[in-house]
Amino acid sequence: MNAPTPALVARPERLRLVGQRRQILAVMHQRLMLGMLVYAGIIAIIALRLIWLAAFGDHAGRKGGLVDLTPERGDIVDRDGQALARTIDAWTIGLQPSKVIGNKLDLAEKLAVLMPEKDAAAYLAMLRSGRNFYYLRRRAPPRLVSAINALGEPGLALEREPDRLYPQTSLAAHVVGFTDLDGKGNAGIERAFDERLRDPAQRGQPIVLSISSRVQQALEHELGNALATFSAIGAAGVVMDIHTGEVLAMTSLPQLNPNDAGDGTPEARFNRATLGVYELGSTFKPFTVAMAMDSGIIKSMGQIYPCPGVLNAYGHQIHDYHPFNRPCSVAEIMMESSNVGTAQIAGQLGKPRQEAFLRKMGFLDKVNVELKERGRTLTPGSRWGPFETMTVGFGHAIAVTPLHLATGYATLFNGGIYHPATLLKVDRNHPVGAGHRVFTEETSYKMRALLRLVVTKGTGKRADAPGYRIGGKTGTAQKLIGGRYSNSINVTSFAGVFPMDEPRYVIVAMLDEPKATPETFGFSTAGWNVAPVVSRTVSRIAPMLGVRPDMRREPNMAEVLPYVHEKAEH
Amino acid sequence: MSARGFGSVLSAGAVVGAALGFYLVSLRVASERAALEDVETRIALTQRDIRLLQTEIGTRGRLAQLERWNVKFIRLAAPNADQFVDGGFQLATLVAPRKTPAIEAPVVLAAASIPPSDNQSALTGDGAEAQPAPTPSRPVNEMMHVASYTVPQPKAAATAPAKPVVARAEALQGKAPAKTPPATKPIKTATSDPLAPLPGAGAKAKGSAPAASAVGANPKSKSKDSDD
How far is CA B181 from the centre of its chain? Predict the structure, then answer.
């Protein structure tokens, strides 16, 4: 009868609507939850990251890199730790013409006032050129840098760049060497140890040289004085420890300033001590006598040789500077530096033994030292016959470096053992180079008195330094000019050892082409010009090296004095 | 029920508090570390400055420069062999003033009634024997006569006889010239030993003995060298 009320019966579409809404709600909840999770996740990640940073992270103000003090290139110091080469931050002034905003004419004038090496026109030309960059000044002094900075021109670039500085300027320049503009070693230790100096793992530790600055300075000063006094074209000197082979000083003059190596003449850049080879003349005679003693040819310093004024040998003539014209003993031959006598000894020795000895002393190879500038010994080579053996015996027809000579004297007087020369300080990290025996100990001992005799009574009197017992040998060799030996142009040298009663140091000094002066009475032989250098140098350096002067000590002169024919006093 | 409701809040608060505490600790550590790094950086910078300054000092005081100054102005030379001493003892012999028997006082005191032997000892200056003063039988002022090469000035003459024993003792110790200024001059003529140092020179040598021996200009050090 009554129709059912629509309120009681849900319409099917309505029902469907409710179901849909529920579904939608669920989906919405799901989505919201997902979004919340995403946000929560992000926040959690941020929070975790913050906690992590707070716990383990670096703080914002950290300045990295500044703590690192390792220089760009390792230092080079002497044996006492005094710096010989250092890398510092230097100011560089550059010019970037494209960035200049001010008046170029004004700027050019101001630059010319501040840096007068170029005039305003040159600066203006640089400013107007299209180039990107010019170096105006490298290694600029701070005052100039602040003055340039005060110009306030953005086109002027002030930068710091590592720069190699040699605080002692020319001291030991040929040992230390120098670098080029890119900081690469070009000579000396800088070149020989370039990789070690640049290696980041090793450059924090300086290279310690065997050079002693004070000894080096004394040698350079005295040699430099002689160079000026006698107008020589060059000079070289070596001081060496005979037991370890450490080179305490080594110089070559004319001097080079490694801070400005580019301006040095080729002459100044040439290392005469290790690269130059010279016929060093009579300084070779002790080697010949020692070889003969070792070979049993000379049995006593009193052995007599005929010493005519001129010796005719194999179609040549050998002369003496102080001719004897009588029989003379070995002691006298050495004392008066007789070529005639030494030639006869060398002749008895013969070429094979002479060559073997020279080879064992390292004279026939390049000198054994760390530097790369090493000269090749000149020998008679294939023409090394009986006559050449004689001339080699007194130091002609063989050209070696002064460092060879120093090494040879060290070998002769340290008991007869050859050690290679070294420029690095001998200590725990760097032991003495492996040596081998060349002369017997007895020969080494007997030679002491012989060379002391040369200084007390012979040609080397002016090399004596009272109390320091120098023993040594002068050498005056004529220079080979245009294939002929010149009569007036010499290379004079002195090789000595001190103190002779207990030899410790060898000193070699050499002058290239010294001229005679009124003070030397017209002589230009070694006894007059280079021997006094040795005397003065030794009196300066011996106290530094711990050699006490003692007037009462001498080597055993009884070995030689009985065989010296005393002249009547005149 | 309400306690249970707050429980979660409290625990959340506790967790937050603890986290904050941890964070504060961590912050503190970080700031300490930052301060330490600052110090380290400053040390490194200072070391770099020291290195720079050392390089500069080394460059300005390079040996070649010192040598140039020495040649031009200072003029020091290497010591000679005989300027080295064997040890402390030899050094002391150079420094210690030699005990000189010289009569440094220009004033010779003569007593009127004193036996000549005493007078003799005073002349040779034998200090030990001269020490006991002559026993005066009469007042000292009357006995003493002053003998000198210089014309005695009234002042010196007045002081000397006043306390003769003291003056003599002082004279033997070399202090007399300080007391009687006009008497310093005749020392040269009155001393028996010409090599004996003047009182002034002796004091100088005492003060700067090594320098004096290095120069070798001091006659006293020379005489010592020749002894050795």
Answer: 26
Closest CA to B30 of A50, A47, A44: A50
Residue of A286 and B80 predicted with greater confidence: A286
Which uninterrupted H or E stretch holds A458?
none
pLDDT of residue A57: 67
Residue A383 touches partner B, C-beta closer than 8 Å? no
Residue of A59, A67, A550 lying closest to B41 (CB–CB) = A67
- Rounded to an integer, the average pLDDT of A248-261 is 88
Q: Which of A88, A171, A465 sits opposite B62 (nearest CB)?
A: A171
Question: Which tokens hold the place of A104?
Answer: 């170029």
Residue range A319-367, pLDDT digits in tens: 888 888 888 888 888 888 889 999 999 999 988 899 999 999 999 989 8
Rounded CA-CA distance B200/B204 in Å is 6
Q: Which of B54, B64, B79 sits opposite A169 (nearest CB)?
A: B64
Q: Note if the pTM is more than 0.90.
A: no
CA-CA distances (angstroms) from residue B146 to A17, A280, B63, B189?
154, 79, 63, 17
Environment class of residue A16 by beta-carbon count within 10 Å: exposed (0-12), middle (13-18) or buried (19+)? exposed
Decide if A174 contacts A369 (C-beta within 8 A): no
Mark yes or no for CB contact A54/B80 under 8 Å: no
A338 catalytic residue (yes or no): no
Asked if B195 reaches chain A (Cβ–Cβ under 8 Å), the answer is: no
CA dihedral A376, A380, A382, A386 (to 10 degrees): -150
DSSP state of B87: S
* Contact predicate A283/A290, CB 8 Å: no
Contact B30 A82 (CB under 8 A): no
Per the CB < 8 A criterion, the answer to whether A218 and A227 are in contact is no
| Nearest to B144, CA basis, from B130, B158, B127 | B158
The token duo for A323 is 């001719």
CA-angle at A57, arms to A53 and A58, nearest 5°: 135
**Closest approach of A424 to chain B, Cα-based (Å):** 21
Q: Whose CA is closest to A84, among A179, A211, A202, A264?
A: A211
Q: A165 - beta bridge partners? A: A86
pLDDT in tens, A389-427: 999 998 888 999 999 999 999 999 999 999 999 999 998
- The pLDDT value given to residue B129: 46
Query: Does residue A43 belong to the interface with chain B, where contact is any CB pair within 8 Å?
Result: no
Residues of A in contact with B76 (CB under 8 A): none
Nearest-by-CA chain A residue for B44: A67
**Res B162: pLDDT:** 46
Residue B29 vs residues B17, B24, B32: alpha-carbon distances, Å: 18, 9, 5
Q: Which amino acid is at B55?
A: T
Considering the candidates A213, A282, A337, A535, report the single residue annotated as catalytic.
A282
Mean pLDDT check: name the lowest of A30-34, A36-40, B131-135.
B131-135
Which residues of chain A lie closer than 8 angstroms to B78, CB-CB? 539-540, 543
Residues of chain B contacting A220 with CB distance shorter than 8 Å: 64
Can you name the residues that pair with A484 across neighbouring β-strands? A481
Q: Where are the alpha helices (DSSP H) in A316-427?
A: 330-335, 339-349, 351-360, 386-393, 402-413
What is the interface size between A and B, counted as CB pairs within 8 Å? 84
Confidence at residue B213, expressed as pLDDT on a 0 to 100 scale: 40
Quote the CA–CA distance of A267 and B143 in Å, as a whole number. 90
- CB atoms A167 and B62 under 8 Å: yes
